[in-house]
């Protein structure tokens, strides 16, 4: 076998002449090549491999040096702008953002400049880009000005990634807080569920009949956007959406902590509402509570933007709920939804500064959303009301009425729960479901008339990214 040439210098490794010589002999070997030709081709392959390995080591070293230089310059620039040290503040900033602005944020929402629009403008739902721009505006409005330059993701990726991670931690903390009392909340609303199924994130909830009944109506074969858990007594009346006792109490725990469910209890001074000056319900907080209510009784174990088990697009559902609540904010039905939350969740709270595995999609879901928005805006509720409901005047004026709303004396999860009647003066006229059908034996309902579709008269749905 011919003696293989040795390489004594870098010039032989990286020189153009050597490279050209190798390329000449690195062509495919003919199938009828002789032994000498095969040996010669092997020699050149070995030489080429040695050159490539050496070149790769040099490039890796150069890349490491460039990265070190770039990081050093970036940190010196940040330090010169007095922007280092955000790490100790980013956690509270993300938690505040969760409870006052948005549930999910993406790296694409971090931009160099604040868009020229209001963060809560109705046009945020026009398309994904508009929604993202609204989130960007909210980030600029909620994060201190000294950190605004860090919101440019193209320049400071670490800030966006840290913020998103802390936002995820805040969601997990909120979920754990509500999960600790969700069995008791359901029990007080008349739903008996095994504590172990609800209290553990990893429990199998996919076959529990009670939970399935909260996620879909009897005529449905999959989870619904407008699920029974969102309505008082599980009856689908859109004028009452989100005002079920379950969603109201989940909202209260989100804002004021677990102990706020007890009789004559006051908000925990360390709870989110106190820390962040939350003193009234918003379209964000109501949509968050409604989405969280469905998630906690679903089969999903982690609250990602899209459920790994149910494949429900939680982020899109949350955005749709917000769109529903902002479609016509001056409509009496919408005002009464907010009034109900403020009465139940913030009553007595001082103003402060500061098979469920199936996809939740339906061919008719867009029409259903459009019809819901139209009906909430224009009070077209008669078609879904029982004929025995009286005069059907659901959207009355803001006259004074007294509504008896059951509020639970909170007990430990393992113990019983008790109801007391609290009389709300000046309560919203649309929350009659709390006092309707109190007789447990009166389950019969009269046939309902078919509902009209109003999708063509309302705006389209604002779909968010998965």
From TrEMBL:
Region (Disordered): 1-21, 62-85, 378-400, 423-466
InterPro entries hit by this protein: DUF6698 (IPR046521)
Domain of life: Eukaryota
Biased composition (Polar residues): 62-71
Pfam family, one: DUF6698
Biased composition range(s): Acidic residues: 380-390
Protein name per its UniProtKB record: Uncharacterized protein
Organism: Mycena rosella
């Amino acid at each position: 076998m011919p003696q293989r040439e040795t390489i004594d210098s870098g010039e032989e490794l990286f020189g153009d002449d050597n490279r050209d010589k190798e390329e000449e002999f690195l062509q495919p070997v003919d199938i009828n090549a002789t032994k000498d030709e095969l040996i010669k081709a092997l020699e050149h392959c070995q030489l080429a491999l040695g050159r490539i390995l050496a070149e790769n080591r040099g490039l890796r070293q150069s890349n490491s040096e460039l990265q070190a230089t770039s990081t050093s310059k970036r940190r010196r620039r940040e330090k010169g702008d007095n922007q280092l040290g955000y790490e100790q503040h980013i956690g509270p900033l993300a938690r505040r953002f969760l409870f006052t602005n948005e549930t999910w944020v993406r790296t694409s929402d971090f931009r160099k400049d604040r868009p020229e629009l209001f963060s809560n403008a109705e046009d945020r739902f026009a398309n994904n880009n508009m929604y993202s721009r609204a989130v960007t505006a909210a980030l600029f409005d909620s994060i201190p000005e000294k950190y605004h330059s860090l919101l440019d993701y193209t320049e400071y990726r670490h800030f966006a990634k840290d913020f998103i991670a802390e936002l995820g931690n805040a969601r997990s903390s909120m979920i754990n807080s509500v999960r600790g009392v969700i069995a008791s909340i359901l029990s007080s609303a008349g739903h008996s569920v095994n504590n172990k199924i609800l209290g553990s994130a990893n429990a199998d909830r996919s076959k529990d009949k009670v939970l399935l009944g909260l996620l879909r109506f009897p005529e449905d074969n999959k989870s619904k956007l407008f699920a029974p858990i969102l309505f008082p007594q599980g009856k689908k009346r859109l004028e009452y959406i989100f005002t079920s006792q379950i969603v109201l109490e989940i909202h209260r725990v989100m804002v004021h902590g677990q102990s706020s469910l007890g009789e004559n209890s006051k908000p925990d001074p360390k709870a989110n509402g106190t820390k962040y000056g939350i003193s009234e319900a918003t379209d964000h907080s109501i949509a968050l509570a409604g989405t969280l209510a469905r998630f906690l009784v679903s089969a999903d174990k982690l609250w990602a933007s899209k459920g790994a088990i149910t494949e429900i697009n939680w982020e899109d559902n949350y955005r749709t709920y917000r769109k529903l609540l902002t479609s016509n904010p001056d409509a009496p039905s919408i005002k009464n939804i907010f009034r109900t939350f403020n009465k139940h969740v913030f009553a007595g709270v001082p103003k402060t500064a500061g098979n469920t595995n199936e996809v939740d999609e339906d061919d008719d879901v867009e029409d259903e959303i459009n019809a819901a928005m139209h009906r909430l805006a224009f009070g077209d509720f008669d078609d879904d009301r029982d004929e025995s409901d009286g005069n059907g005047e659901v959207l009355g004026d803001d006259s004074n009425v007294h509504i008896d709303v059951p509020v639970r004396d909170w007990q430990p999860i393992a113990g019983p729960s008790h109801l007391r009647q609290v009389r709300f003066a000046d309560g919203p006229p649309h929350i009659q479901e709390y006092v309707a059908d109190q007789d447990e034996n009166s389950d019969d309902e009269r046939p309902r008339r078919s509902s009209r579709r109003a999708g063509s008269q309302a705006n389209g749905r604002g779909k968010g990214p998965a």
